[in-house]
Amino acid sequence: DMKVTQMPRYLIKRMGENVLLECGQDMSHETMYWYRQDPGLGLQLIYISYDVDSNSEGDIPKGYRVSRKKREHFSLILDSAKTNQTSVYFCASRGHANSDYTFGSGTRLLVI
Amino acid sequence: QQQVRQSPQSLTVWEGETAILNCSYEDSTFNYFPWYQQFPGEGPALLISIRSVSDKKEDGRFTIFFNKREKKLSLHITDSQPGDSATYFCAASEGGGSALGRLHFGAGTQLIVIP
C-alpha cells in the first residue's frame, strides 16, 4: 500500500527546545514537501526536496531546516522552537511521472 | 500575495442538495487545478483535477467547472451526503504530469452536510 508516514502524530515541546519531525514514503518518490496548516491559512509550503541533498526553500522557511539523506526519508527540524510554530505539519511526496501529491496524516505540534 | 483564493470559507448544505465551492487564481501560467479533500485528523487527498484545456471534468457526484478567461473554477457536489463533510482545497500549478510544478493551495472551504 503506497503511503506517506509521519512520526510522531502528536508532539508537545517547550519553547526553545529542538524539534524533529520525521516523514517516510515507500514509493521511491523523488520530490517531497513539508507544509504547515493553520486555520484560515490553508497549506503553507516550508521546504521542497527534489531528491537526496537537493532542497529548496518554500514560502515560509524561516525557523525551519530540513534533511534528506535517503530518498525515502525527509526530516523537518525546528531549532529552538517558538510558540508561533504550533501547527499541524504535513509531509507530501510525488513521483516523477504523472502523479499528484500524496500526503501523510500530519504531526500536530504544540509549543508551550 | 495569495495565488489561489477560495470561497466561501464555510458552507452548510442539507443532504441531497448541491454544494458549490468556488476558487479563483492569479497566475495566468497556471494550467493544472486539483481539488483535495481533507477529513479531520487526516492529510489532504486528491479528489478530482482538471487541466486548463478543458472547461468541465466530472467524476461521479463531483464536477469541476473551469473558466479560463475569468480565472475561476468551481467544484459542484451533487446529492451531497453527510460523508462529504470535509475541508476542500483548491490548488493550482504550472505543468502537470511529469512536469508538475509546485502546487499553490487556497485556504480551503469547510463543507458541512446536514442529514
State the total count of DSSP E strands of chain B. Answer: 11
What structural class results from the helix and strand content of chain A? mainly beta
CATH superfamily of chain A: Immunoglobulins
Rg result of chain B: 13 Å
**What summary fits the major beta sheet of chain A?**
7 strands, mixed
Distance between the termini of chain A: 36 Å
Q: Roughly what fraction of the amino acids of chain B lie in strands?
A: over 45%
Which pair of chains forms the biggest interface, and how many residues does each contribute? A-B, 22 and 21 residues
What is the CATH architecture term of chain B?
A: Sandwich
Helix content of chain A: under 10%
Question: CATH topology of chain B, which one?
Answer: Immunoglobulin-like
Shape of chain A: globular
Mean pLDDT of chain A: 93
What would CATH call the class of chain B? Mainly Beta
Give the helix proportion of chain B (percent range): under 10%
Low-pLDDT regions of chain B: none
Shape of chain B: globular
Reading the helices and strands of chain B in chain order gives EEEEEEEEEEE
Number of domains of chain B: 1
Structural write-up:
The complex is a heterodimer of chains A (112) and B (115). With 112 residues, chain A is mainly β. In chain A, 0% of the residues lie in helices and 57% in strands. Chain A has no helices and 11 strands. Chain A has strands at residues 4-7, 10-13, 19-25, 31-38, 42-51, 54-57, 65-70, 73-78, 87-94, 102-103, 107-111. In chain A, strands 2, 4, 5, 6, 9, 10 and 11 form a 7-stranded mixed beta sheet that branches. Chain A is globular and about 40 Å long. The N and C termini of chain A lie far apart (36 Å). The model of chain B has no long low-confidence stretch (mean pLDDT 93). Chain B is 0% helix and 53% strand. In chain B, the strands form 2 sheets. In chain B, strands 2, 4, 5, 9, 10 and 11 form a 6-stranded mixed beta sheet that branches. Chain B has a 5-stranded antiparallel beta sheet with strand order 1-3-8-7-6, with no helix packed on it. Chain B is mainly beta and 115 residues long. Chain B has no helices and 11 strands. Chain B has a single domain, classed as Immunoglobulin-like. The chains are: A mainly beta (112), B mainly beta (115). The A-B interface holds A 4, 33, 40-43, 45, 48, 58, 90, 92, 94, 96-101, 103-106 and B 6, 9, 34, 36, 41-46, 49, 89, 97-98, 100, 102-103, 105-108.
